[in-house]
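Dig into what follows:

_____
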Amino acid sequence: MIKHETKSEKPLDDKPIDYDADTDGLTIEVIESEQVADKKVLKKGVYLIPNSFTLLSLLAGFYAIISSSQGHFMTACVAIFVSAFLDGMDGRAARMLKAQSAFGEQLDSLADCIAFGLTPAVLIYHYALQPLGRIGIACAFVYSACAALRLARFNVQIGVVDKKYFIGVASPLAAILIATFVMVNMDWQSVLPRTGMSFGLMSAVWSVVVGLLMVSNVKYYSFKEFDKKRVPFVALIVIIFVLGIVLYNIPAGLLAIGVIYALSGIVSAVLEKVKPKPTIR
């Protein structure tokens, strides 16, 4: 565990924390309180490794925005995938090193809002929605706003919702659904040109639907419990076949997996609704 500490821990009572007492007004520093045993202590500094992964994820998202605005759409899509990978690494690094902090959670959420909320909206707008005018702007904004709403809801529900499930599609997956949608169309330009009105309308609907899935109350399996859980050997065989299908056409395969996962939550919710409730005698 790597941590930058500029001052020893200070035990606190229940009085409001006077942060100004520990700063000179000029030094750039993070000060937060943490619960240690039965006391609160005031700590300075941040955890280096997990926050570095978060900043790298943000950098990849920012680079994707620049690439989209310059017309380098494939580069932007790849950058979104890199950002999603790094976003998964920061949480794992924090848990492995026991380096979770309130600052890290907030930084991760703000970075996700840009990398998986703003970046995909800019990508799909420049790639397909711009010819639609104000309708295209509105659809891109709906996606971006839904991502922000989903992240805000996620923050306030930490510790309340079962960790085995996501409520609504996770923002990294939503960003990947947008990126793979663009990548697949780039391969199928002869069938569905991106400059056509039909593809523009399809992109608008896709953006809004993915955005609404993020703020839905549909439960999606998070797979977090598989970190330390044994699975049947046949699961590896299934993964091999899935990887083979994906490698045949990577964008189409990844998009298909994402769509299947998105539909799985909806199907589970419908089955739960129509499932007959046990009668109480």
Remarks:
- Residues 112 and 235 are 31 Å apart (CA to CA).
- The beta strands are 10-12, 31-36, 39-44, 165-167, 219-221.
- The first strand starts at residue 10 and ends at 12.
